[in-house]
Amino acid sequence: MEKLMSQDVEKQIKDILSNMIQPVKLVLFTRVSNEPSDLTEQLLGELSALNNKIQLEVHDINIKADLAKTYDITDAPSFVILDHNNEDRGVKFSGIPLGHEINSLLSAIMEMSGVDFGYDSELIEKIKKIDKPVNIKVFVTMSCPHCPGAVQSAHRLAMLNDNIKAEMIEAQTYYELSTKYNVTGVPKIVINDKYELPGNQPVEAFLKEIAKI
In 3-state terms, what secondary structure has residue 213? Predict the structure, then answer.
């Protein structure tokens, strides 16, 4: 099978991953004979081979449906990133994080491992004070250069507050979901299925919408 990443890209990613602090686990749910599932599994396999701090666990969603539900996963391919204590911090990817979205994936892995993402203490305190359930969906395409920033912000919010769950949704793989949420451009951010933000918004814009809940 031809690799998804060239040797040069592998070397660049390996250099980035060398700065990981704690181990992380990727828990992927797939479907048999499903091309997006196969590509996602191949990508995560190639990635996990570049650093022994990344553990990959793969399940058939039809066989492990109950386990998938514990991570709020109902379709495939989808995966979560667990921290070094195997705890779900609300960081989920649905669809193939290739193209520009490899940046979202690498950021999530690095930051879940403990790498600081540069928020000041005042902003962190605001995020940690959120005391209501928040669900953030960020619809993306692999060719969108502005999407990773929105995904990174959503995932960082989830990592900082247990009340927040954030999901990257690759719009083409999840076409029916994209239609349901009237996705005509990306990134499109949907908060609690009610509030919407177009484009790559700063984290402060997320907080402004969350305050309306």
Answer: coil
Q: Structural domains in the chain? A: 22-210 (3.40.30.80)
At residue 98, the 3 state secondary structure works out as coil
Please report the pLDDT score of residue 1 as a whole number: 74
Taking only the tens place, the pLDDT of each residue in 177-199 is 999 999 999 999 999 999 999 99
Nearest residue to 2 via CA among 60, 59, 42: 42
E strands present in 22-121? 24-30, 54-60, 78-82, 88-94
pLDDT for residue 78 is more than 80: yes
Residues 6+ apart with CB under 8 A from 106: 13, 16, 17
Answering whether pTM is above 0.90, one says: yes
Residue 69, Cβ density class (10 Å: 0-12 exposed, 13-18 middle, ≥19 buried)? exposed
Which of 139, 138, 135, 137 is closest to 172 using CA atoms? 139
Report pLDDT for 31.
97
- Reference 61, options 81, 42, 41; nearest CA is 41
Local structure of 91: helix, strand or coil: strand
Beta-carbon contacts of residue 35 (< 8 Å; ≥ 6 apart) = none
